[in-house]
Amino acid sequence: xxxxxxxxxxxxxxxxxxxxxxxxxxxxxxxxxxxxxxxxxxxxxxxxxxxxxxxxxxxxxxxxxxxxxxxxxxxxxxxxxxxxxxxxxxxxxxxxxxxxxxxxxxxxxxxxxxxxxxxxxxxxxxxxxxxxxxxxxxxxxxxxxxxxxxxxxxxxxxxxxxxxxxxxxxxxxxxxxxxxxxxxxxxxxxxxxxxxxxxxxxxxxxxxxxxxxxxxxxxxxxxxxxxxxxxxxxxxxxxxxxxxxxxxxxxxxxxxxxxxxxxxxxxxxxxxxxxxxxxxxxxxxxxxxxxxxxxxxxxxxxxxxxxxxxxxxxxxxxxxxxxxxxxxx
Length: 329
What we know:
This protein is of the alpha/beta class. It folds into 2 domains: about 1-125 and about 310-325, 3-Layer(aba) Sandwich (Rossmann fold); about 125-305, 2-Layer Sandwich (Dihydrodipicolinate Reductase, domain 2). The protein has 10 helices and 13 strands. It has helices at about 10-20, 55-60, 70-85, 105-110, 125-140, 160-170, 200-215, 250-255, 275-280, 310-325, and strands at about 1-5, 30-35, 40-45, 50, 65-70, 90, 120, 145-155, 220-225, 235-240, 260-265, 285-290, 300-305.
């Protein structure tokens, strides 16, 4: 079993290595791959030292699985080259998510769609993953009619440059800006670039990817994505309108019995999800579950998860585990 991590020096790549070690992912050979400027440097993983190699050498090595977290442009160019060698690419960028010929996978929801012929598999956007983890079991029973989403997203979703900006601003230093405005003590209603319809790309990912994962283009979805100065994970306020009515206790029981979801919902003693507690964990945390009295068959939820783990690295590794368990590589 030959495993490659492409983008091993990046923020998500580092978390991938941590999660691989924690979950004791089985491999005989590990290839750590990064851009040319990092080639020759070393990374210590599980008490072993690995030298970083370039993409051409990695393709020539023909790994069985390649976990990609190196950006959309790199993935568009290099994922097909790996696939031609027989490698299964699990890609964390947005490059392949809406390609009709590529599967967009959250293992707990739709891994059973995967086949041996899938050589490029898309990992959904972080904010989408945590939301559909909570929505999928409810959709199955009550059928979702409409979603109104507001996200409060960690700076770690932007990357190292954003983390450094916040650190500099907190310390009163000047430095390179990841955002067009300060992020310390601020909130930016601006995640990714604006599209022609006035929504940002991040907001439209929540629309398009949710419909694809849940395999239901009839769900009406609108979203506002906001960047806030936190680092533990993404938070989402989600208003759900169902076709059918529901009982709140049934909703909580369904979520409590969903793998990968933890219900934290006791406002009487101030128990509700927060990114400071989601940090470093793989579960999706759901709370503030309450009926929307202004609309029939409608529900409000607060959903929090570590965007670098379940929102990126862990989800990708779970896909790889599924492939191994079902002898698809």
